[in-house]
Amino acid sequence: ALTGNVNIFYYAAMEEVTGAQLIAEALKTQNVEFMFGIVGVPIIEVAMAAQAAGIKYVGMRNEQAVEACRLYSKFSARPGSLEAIPSVVEKAVRTSMYGRPGACYVDISGDMVNAKVNRIVSCCPPPPVSLADNTAITEAISVLKGAKRPLVIIGKGAAYGRAESALRALVEVSGLPFIPTPMGKGVLPDNHPNCVAAARSRALLQADVVLLLGARLNWILHFGLPPRFDPHVKVIQVDLCAEEMGNNVRPAVALLGDVNAVVTQLLESVRKDGWKYPFNTEWWSALKEKIAANAKISKALALQSAVPMNYYTVFHHISQLLPGDCVIVSEGANTMDIGRTMLNNSLPRHRLDAGTFGTMGVGLGFAIAAASVEKSQNTGRRVVCVEGDSAFGFSGMEVETMCRYNLPVIIIVVNNNGIYSGVDPETWKEMAKMGDLTTIAPPVTLLPEARYDEVMTAFGGRGFLVRTVEELRSALKLSLSDWERPSLLNVLIDPASDRKQQEFPWLTRSNL
């Protein structure tokens, strides 16, 4: 974890240190507060040196294919000598923060850990802030003013750039409707009157001008292409990465720079011009009509009293009880998709999910990292991890990590006995009678009503088996009141429960 403080640390009078100490001190110099890892020789020495240097070490359980990360890292290096370690670590930290943020990979030879060397290194400075060209700002305002159906899309780049204050002012001064991307949620509150996320499909399809703020036109935004977008849509693209400009859709205007700085430039121009998009347009009426229609459908599903419950019933009651400032971590298929629409975020940088690559198994690790920071800073914020049963299985043993460090994470496993859908216990038993389950059981099925709650209780946490609304609300209230240990709610839902009918199912449609 990195902080914004710029401090400089020095070794005392060129004191001789081991490679493990050098690594630890290099990280401490870059203001690293937490180290997450899995130890073994010689990593044990590095973890112990990190603790001695004042870095909090969190031992994890799920070792992913770390070597494969090299290919997808923003920067990767293998120091050729002990003397090079501090400068390589400084460059890795600096590269991870400068421009578009990203993971960096440093591979240090094991024989360097116990060798000794002298070295001094200073902390990297904060990332530089760049502005867009003023001519391009003027052009962007002209395109916005000419729009009949404008839309702002708020990406996670706006969250990373801490653009929430300037962006709120821009949206409210200009009167523009907006939708967030999954991790752009909370930059502006989901309940903001200009948020049209509940009419997302219509907003994307019919917008004639899109102001794209720190988001990529990748699969999450359907590549900016028909049938999800108007083929003639004009995109005003704001990004701090020049290489991102024009990917999939050529922008009408490219604004290269820090999102917060560029939004501030746009805000100043809008205020100077005095322009505001009218609230009484056909576009606003169409969006509000669609929001009301979708809300009616979701409410009807949420208020169903049948047992087993459906997704919408579960999320409706969870949303009523969660604190407004909690950090929500989510992964899964339907669990993540439906939860994104029903679990509101009011604050920026308070939602983590499977991200650009849709990687399952990251949720519990994200929750542990978030809970470690919240506990260290004594913020009083809860971390709630909402998982599909399949997603939980990827890293389920991390509940032991939560119990070991007394991290009061609340895990809610929405258990439908499968991936997208499963079968009930009776159907499973009948299939077993028919022969070998490896040739009979649908590939999407998992063991019905698996007791994930007992995995948590095995390590000393609280586990709840939930079948009804009453049990759900009671278990969640008890979990929210417990700050001493983690909890897991194993919420059994209808295996056939699904998302409400989608206008454009092509992205996830199966031929089955």
From TrEMBL:
Residues 18-80 form the Thiamine pyrophosphate enzyme N-terminal TPP-binding domain. Residues 333-491 form the Thiamine pyrophosphate enzyme TPP-binding domain. GO terms for cellular component: peroxisome. It is an enzyme of class 4 (lyase). GO terms for molecular function: 2-hydroxyacyl-CoA lyase activity; magnesium ion binding; thiamine pyrophosphate binding. Its EC number is 4.1.2.63. GO terms for biological process: fatty acid alpha-oxidation. InterPro entries: DHS-like_NAD/FAD-binding_dom, HACL1-like, THDP-binding, Thiamin_PyroP_enz_cen_dom, Thiamin_PyroP_enz_TPP-bd_dom, TPP_enzyme_TPP-bd. Its cofactor is thiamine diphosphate. It catalyses: 2-hydroxyoctadecanoyl-CoA = heptadecanal + formyl-CoA; a 2-hydroxy-3-methyl fatty acyl-CoA = a 2-methyl-branched fatty aldehyde + formyl-CoA; an (R)-2-hydroxy-long-chain-fatty acyl-CoA = a long-chain fatty aldehyde + formyl-CoA. Residues 137-266 form the Thiamine pyrophosphate enzyme central domain. Keywords: Lyase, Magnesium, Metal-binding, Thiamine pyrophosphate. CDD domains: TPP_BZL_OCoD_HPCL, TPP_PYR_POX_like. Gene3D superfamilies: 3.40.50.970, TPP-binding domain. Belongs to the TPP enzyme family. This is 2-hydroxyacyl-CoA lyase. The lineage of its organism: Eukaryota, Metazoa, Chordata, Craniata, Vertebrata.
